[in-house]
Amino acid sequence: MHPQALLEACAALLREVLRFEHxxxxxxxxxxxxxxxxxxxxxxTLAETTYAVLRRKLLYExxxxxxxxxxxxxxxxxxxxxxxxxxxxxxxxxxKGWLHDCDAVAPQELFEPERHNLPAWLAERLxxxxxxxxxxxxxxxxxxxxxxxxxxxxxxxxxQTQAQLAQAAIESEETPYSPWGLxxxxxxxxxxxxxxxxxxxxxxxxGSQLLALLLDARRGEMVTDFCAGAGGKTLAIGASMRSTxxxxxxxxxxxxxxxxxxxxxxxxxxxxxxxxxxxxxxxxIKRLAGKMDRVLVDAPCSGLGTLRRNPxxxxxxxxxxxxxxxxKQQAILQSAARLVKPGxxxxxxxxxxxxxxxxxxxxxxxxxxxxxxxxxxxxxxxDLKLQQAxxxxxxxxxxxxxxxxxxxxxxxxxxxxxxxxxx
Length: 423
Ligand SMILES: C[S@@+](CC[C@H](N)C(=O)[O-])C[C@H]1O[C@@H](n2cnc3c(N)ncnc32)[C@H](O)[C@@H]1O
Prior knowledge:
Layout: H1 3-17, H2 24-34, H3 40-55, H4 57-63, H5 71-79, H6 84-88, H7 93-103, H8 112-116, H9 120-130, H10 134-141, E1 147-151, H11 158-167, E2 172-174, E3 181-184, H12 194-197, E4 201-203, H13 206-215, E5 222-225, H14 232-240, E6 246-251, H15 254-267, E7 272-276, E8 292-298, H16 313-316, H17 319-337, E9 340-350, H18 359-368, E10 372-375, H19 377-383, E11 393-394, E12 402-405, H20 407-410, E13 415-422
Parallel strand pairs: 5-6, 5-8, 6-7, 8-9
Antiparallel strand pairs: 1-3, 1-4, 2-3, 9-13, 10-13, 11-12, 12-13
Helix pairs in contact: 1-3, 1-5, 3-5, 4-5, 13-14
The chain binds S-adenosylmethionine (SAM).
């Protein structure tokens, strides 16, 4: 495709995404379905340019105030994810001069928001929470996430899987914490590999794998994944139960549960029972009350821990949306807790960075529900012989109370989890 046509296509896609009416990944997929003319490399450039602009939106908007032509074209030039030589083929002499001037802007000439590229409300909260660690986090959130795979231990072993990937010219290394994980170099297409179609691997961030590990579901147990969605964690939990016992995968979104079905078929699991519920107090779940050995609440949240993958979320969330989510999170945790049997365990987790969706929810629950005794996440992970368990945790008097994963410290998405045992 001619550079000019590809640059204009990037600008057109940005025009749709920057309306923020729908999640960026959904807009990009719809765009590709409607516009069949793009090959795989062009699609990659279009998607990566869009994500680069979403990541550094404040910086690029500031630079785009100078220059000429349509705003989205200027943003696409600044975020262009292809080779500079190729881009040059699309630029006028004036645009080349402008881009050269933009490249020469030094960081000290920029205002803070143009360096961290976060909305003011979010930067303020993260600064209050993190202090000096705010800037390493902000920098970490501007990087694309690596591609992590989880080896399905029902079907494969990690070393052999790594060797098979190498045969397909895919380089990978073992993830540092999860015993199931492989971190792949680059972004190779995974879903046509025999390893993928046969269910030996799934794409899953190491942080998500750690949440499934933390649940420590055992063979033959009764387990509920209360907010199962498309089942990323369900599949990891089901495999850790060696496809025995019963694992209920509940969600209010039948659509998301539908996306679990093909993954379930590949996985070889026969212990998973997906069920759509109307809400967290649905009659259908009453009969499960007091019966579960393990309950995971992977609660709906702002998703701000996934900004490396979903940078549009920082522009789509707001203090009000976070406030509404915290109400829902409390209600779901309260209801899900009823399923836990005496001696059983409950986990509340999110992929948010914000204390109000995390520690605040866990502490409010602990204060109300004297029946549930906190278990230090660091201890649970150490008992599982997990590498460097203590470094993954924070909070409480010994700094081990909660699982607290950060992109800049652990190279995972941001995750939080609290664990309780019912008396
Ligand atoms: C963070 S996502 C779950 C991701 C999923 N566990 C995974 O690993 O792929 C949160 C899920 O909670 C679901 N949800 C929202 N409200 C709910 C409720 N009241 N009861 C159960 N699930 C709910 C959403 O539909 C969404 O799929």
